[in-house]
């Protein structure tokens, strides 16, 4: 079964070297691989080209839809592993879309990469709704879990899966990264934190925004809220450095 990746331009898989821009590993040089497809539809999603294909009418901020052919590329796992290895990763960030939707292909790809780079650190960016089978779970060093709150526009019945949230709350490999667009969004975080017993040291609040000015403006009110509740913040370093582009 091939692995389906997003593209930076038609026919070019989104595999790139950059600095981890978000979460607890911010600032670390890493290789990124972006998988196509998602099971949610956040109205402010910054990677709608991974899921909002022509004919998908679910509401999205930009209203833009994307031709599947130009925005997806199916690769043999060996070919994908080669492309990743060409960038000589010691840290790999697997993102999407929702990468855990392609568990079987991901297991194959990651095992191939690890067979050449045995000390590879593997982080997965996930929306926290999809269970990774054991064969995949055991390959992962760090989960960056970003559960989607009410303001994402997804029904809670799809976005918040209690059994998954409890699993990550109990797993020291999992860090929670909540996207915050307005101060009231933090109330949803506090409810989830209490309900699942998520340790404060594994909770980060991240401003929603795809330009430096918005991030900076929102960080101004977000930082004192985080301080008040003893939570952490994370910025989006790659946006400040490069802007909202693919492949960075
Ligand atoms: N540099 C960089 N860091 C990131 N951390 C999470 C990303 C994502 O899109 O999931 C991302 C991304 O797209 N670029
Ligand atoms: S879960 Fe992530 S990739 Fe999926 S729609 Fe939401 S922001 Fe986009
Ligand atoms: Mg991103």
UniProtKB/TrEMBL annotation:
Annotated keywords: 4Fe-4S, Iron, Iron-sulfur, Lyase, Magnesium, Metal-binding, Queuosine biosynthesis, S-adenosyl-L-methionine
Residue positions binding Mg(2+): 47
Record-linked PROSITE patterns: RADICAL_SAM (PS51918)
Pathway connected to this protein: Purine metabolism; 7-cyano-7-deazaguanine biosynthesis
Alphabetized InterPro entries for the sequence: 7-CO-7-deazaguanine_synth-like, Aldolase_TIM, rSAM, rSAM_sf
Annotated signal peptide: none
Residues that bind [4Fe-4S] cluster: 38, 42, 45
Protein EC: 4.3.99.3
Binding-site residues for substrate, renumbered to this chain: 19-21, 34, 95
Cofactor, how bound (note): Binds 1 [4Fe-4S] cluster. The cluster is coordinated with 3 cysteines and an exchangeable S-adenosyl-L-methionine.
Protein family (similarity comment): Belongs to the radical SAM superfamily. 7-carboxy-7-deazaguanine synthase family.
Name this polypeptide is given: 7-carboxy-7-deazaguanine synthase
Source organism: Croceicoccus mobilis
